[in-house]
Amino acid sequence: MEPIIETRGLAKSFKSFKAVDNLSFTIRHGDVYGFLGQNGAGKSTTMRMLLGLIFPDSGQIFINGQEFDNSKRHLLKNIGAIIERPDMYGYLSGWDNLKIFAALSDKHIKPARLHEVIEMVGLKGRENDKVKAYSQGMKQRLGIAIATVHQPDLLILDEPTNGLDPQGIAEMRALILSLSKDHGKTILISSHLLYEIEHVATRMIVLNKGKKIVEGPVSELLNPDETLIEIECAPDEGLKSKIMQSGWGGHLQVCKAGAFTMKMNVNRTPDFNKWMVENGIRVQEIRSKHSLEAYFLSLTTETTATK
Amino acid sequence: MISLLRIELYKIFKRPRTYISFGIVTAITFIIQLAMLSGGRDFIAFGMQGVSEQFDIQGHILNGYLVTYIILQSLLIHIPLLVALVAGDALAGEANLGVLRLLLTKPIARSRLVLVKFISSVIYTILLIVWLAIVALFLSLLLFGPGDMINMKSDAFVLILKNDIMWRYVAAFGFATLAMTTIAALSLFLSAFADNSIGPIMTTMGMVVVLTILSNLELPLFNIIKPYLFTTHMIGWKGFFDDPVPYAAIGRSAMVLVGYTVGFVTATILYFNKKDIKS
């Protein structure tokens, strides 16, 4: 089967700033594809190029095996998207907004389908309110309704949990998982919240300064045994040299006067804690980071250090 | 295309801002009519001073047709602003709202979107001019009654018999619609470059004011460029109240306005088709 999305050597610059640099990746049917990178890594620019909002300087985009450019916008028929914020017409009701964007999808959509998605995203009873009266969470949910109303094969979600409270984030995560598992959608998702990606993505790509650092299945890329350990301690000027002179030096990632980060197998934490106590380091707190966060930081830190 | 147009019109006429223009037209028209009701006779007597000494003028000079002509002279200067409020907002306003981003993720050709936005701006313009015709012409006829019209020009007086006037107004309103369509096209063009609607609206008005001044300045330097300025031709509607009607000049003006309109819309399509949507 053809990949649903394939890019080859995609590049885009804004004046002298290279936003995306020779980027090639593949999204297969059924993937929940995590798009990771720091701010300015090129995630949004790439997503906008996939949707024809921004034109690449070079490279190719294939949607279901067909090359996509501005003259082939009909290929967008099977894609639904939220880019950054789901902005809508505030002076119209949620229902009107949904109806308008459904009509623009170039598919015949019956009113029953509109009711179905309103119910799916939990806006039943509020659909006739003006969008300007909606909370950020409701707007995000309406955005998902707009993105899915025409039953697209692929959803492109750029920061779908932006501006949501913890409950909203949990609801959005459940909705995305349901769209993938229950409705069989392929999803391309970017988020600053790595925990979210870790829990929903099956494959992922990490970008840094517009370039691909790594791409592959989440289960293969993440080493569950290795994690980042953050330690807070009483300020100690000689802290870094103490660690570097010990056998633990190779694990040190970042070190300040009163805090440092180690990358190690989580099972070795008790031994390291014992060593710190024996060497007079007054530990205040030890916490481990999530595995994806650790992986992401190690990748982007290494790349920055290499540069 | 029709469904896209229907959506565009729905959005325009669901927006409260749209009706401000209709309110302004009504208010200004009503104020002028009230002023004419209270002090119109003195105003006309002052304007006719030189003529009444040489001619014996009978009947109601201050009638509905003359008041409509006065209203048109005053209002057609301000209507470009009202047209720009909608046309200048068409692309830039949606970019500002962030909706343009969502809109363009749909399988719609950008050129079609620009065309639909232009057509909907023209429909809005037509409705505004029709509304102006209703409140200015019909209300004035109701308040002042019909009669022969004396068109007071700077160098002559043109007498138009009352049976010969209505078609002139229909033609004049038609020509005014064409002139305002050019303004809509200009605003839409400027709107494609901006990410909020204030810029295109203000720039449209700025251009109309500056070019109108250039069109009216009697200086040799400007006489060369005057025939090429669209503002020179926007007042072509006045020709329908001359005797004989200068059809050739009106036709030339109409062609210039059509040329500008086509030019602005084509340029908008060409630019917008290549524009990166970053907002």
Keywords:
heterodimer, A: 307 residues, alpha/beta, 6-stranded mixed sheet, 4-stranded antiparallel sheet, 14 strands, globular, disordered C terminus, B: 279 residues, mainly alpha, two-stranded antiparallel ribbon, 13 helices
Instruction: State the strand order across the main sheet of chain B.
Output: 1-2
Beta-strand content estimate of chain A: 25-35%
Order of helices and strands of chain B: HHHHHHHHEEHHHHH
What would you call the structural class of chain B?
A: mainly alpha
Order of helices and strands of chain A: EEEHEEEHHHEHEHEEHEHEEHEH
| Biggest chain contact | A-B, 35 and 26 residues
Mean pLDDT score of chain A: 83
Give Rg of chain A in angstroms.
Answer: 23 Å
Strand content of chain B: under 5%
How many helix segments of chain A?
10
Give me the number of helical elements of chain B: 13
Mean pLDDT score of chain B: 87
Low-confidence runs of at least 5 consecutive residues of chain B: none
What percent of the residues of chain B sit in helical stretches (DSSP H or I)? over 70%
